[in-house]
Amino acid sequence: MSAQGIVIFSYICNSQQKSTIMKRLIFAVLCLLAGTGAIKAQPVSVIYETDYGNDADDALALEFICKYNDLGKMKLLGVGTHKEGPNICAAVDGSLNWYGYSKVPVAKSPTPVSRPNDGRHYADSVALCRNSKGKIAFKPTKNGKYENAVDFYRRILAKQPDNSVTIVSVGFATNLALLLDSKPDKFSPLSGRELVAKKVKLLSTMMGCYRENPFSEYNVNCDIPAMQKVMREWPGEIVQNPFEIGEKVRYPLSLMHEKLAWTTPHPLNVATSVNVPDPNGEQCEFDVMSAIYLVHPELFNLSERGTISIDDNGFNHFTPSPNGKHRYLTTTPAQDKALRELLIKVTTMKPKKFKK
Known about the structure:
Blueprint: H1 3-14, H2 20-35, E1 44-50, H3 57-70, E2 74-83, H4 88-99, E3 106-113, H5 123-128, E4 147-148, H6 149-159, E5 165-169, H7 174-181, H8 192-199, E6 200-206, H9 218-221, H10 224-233, E7 237-241, H11 243-248, E8 250-252, H12 253-259, H13 267-275, E9 282-284, H14 288-295, E10 301-302, E11 306-310, E12 316-320, E13 326-330, H15 333-348
Helix pairs in contact: 1-2, 3-13, 3-14, 6-7, 7-8, 7-10
């Protein structure tokens, strides 16, 4: 307590008009006020669910989460994958090790979605990349042993405080649908739906679109039944990051390569170079917006509450409802500019591991 607080408390105690209970109450309030400045915002506990391998914005989202983990703004609990590909988990594992997070678990779906070309696109390049000494540049640490994604989710969620976990899902809903259907096990006596309701604060997901000429967006289209199930049965809050935001926020690759030139190779550089071979091209940054929203909500606008549904053709629909648990993001041109500037700033930062 400050000196001023002590004086105030002493004055109150000397007043015969105050009861003992009132004195104790005021003392408690003063102590709380005195300590307010010392309270530190808690990091956002995140599980990152990714279809890593085709568009390199997944790699940028991983970079963002790791950098914000460095800053104490996020706490990465694990990474789940759900696309079939021989090197997807190894690429994520090796990248995490490179960023300084080798102990973060990586999981693989028991029913990965087959996308033969997408699953090998840049994941192979990152996993097999060699440095100037001819050694694997981004070395995996888990010896090819990746946890079943359902077990992974149940194990991690069961250990977390209630209403504390945010799932950042930037791919298909495959693993999330399996989680909802999961049964009580050694990790928790709760069903999957009950476990999600108890432990998950928010599902921040990149999927769907609201363009004038809508289409079945990739993350929905690749596993329509799973996305339908999640939108229909997820017990908690969902914030949708639709296609059109990332379509507007583009990162010039010449600038990105310049910002990452402090080291060679860099996992994000490798991924983007494969994804957009033209060094003067641009990369749309869809996925990372779902992570940015968690720590910079002021850079977005939220829709009214409602319910998102997915039809059998993979088109998403939003129905306003005051009791709805779903909302979607929108941005203004000024916010788009601020988001682009933030991404440039983040990629300019060196990982904490390399600052020692």
